[in-house]
Amino acid sequence: MWKYGVHPFLWTVRLDQEVEKVAARAKQLGFDSIDFPLNFPEWIDIPRARRAFQQEGLECTVVAGLSRQENLVDPDPAVRRRGVERLKEMIDIAHQLGAPVLSGVLYCAWGYIPGRGRTADEWRWSVEGLQQAADHAQQAGVTLGLEPVNRFETYFLNTTEDGLKLLADVGKPNVKLLLDTFHINIEERSYVEPFRMAAGKLAHVHACENDRGTPGSGHVDWAGVMRVLKATGYQGHIVIESFVPETPAIARETAIWRKIAPSGDFIAGEGLRYLKALEQVVLAEPA
Description:
By secondary structure, this protein is α/β, with parallel strands linked by helices. The chain is 43% helix and 16% strand.
């Protein structure tokens, strides 16, 4: 029923040189798609990536975030304009890759924490920028998935409730949510209720254990999440998005300093086996 994807940073950040190896390994492990990151533009080769994914019969989604220089909520209008232009560039890349979804921290700069709560002006600026990006995405056939993330990564959007408010104010049918079980574990009071709240407005799912390790190894209520996805008719991708200290550039960004699993291969392979086995159980349950 669901398509399972994997984040390539489990193996490498060099998606210019090693994208073929990533695609081959993902296919070998049984994944349906790659969640292609745009964190390091200097280390990606879009035509090469598309060829690699097509050769392995893999679908593609795209995940990204804005930087401080491209912040949709910056007081400087020039910075906000750069944010909109960067979102349009990301949308164009998603279109080139044949990706139906571009998701992530698209509403402000990822990692920007000014030491206070968001302001009404910042909310308005984000809405305005996302509306412009959504119009461009509509023409490209791309859906935007806005990801609420934990308070240590943004001050702007932490909960599903606030995410739905942002969707309502943006008011574009191709702007939806990405929900991530790692962030839900920190910010929500239930694993299940956020998915129920987001019914019909969910573009993408990131499957991470509570310690950002292997799905099934911690205390995330995976069965509850899958039951809600089944009941609400979700048919998108479920992506294992975890990271390992063996990729230092990502370890620094995500604060992965200790070994949470034997390897990236272990997280991907064991996590996928667990999720697929649980899916069969959940789908066999009476409605």
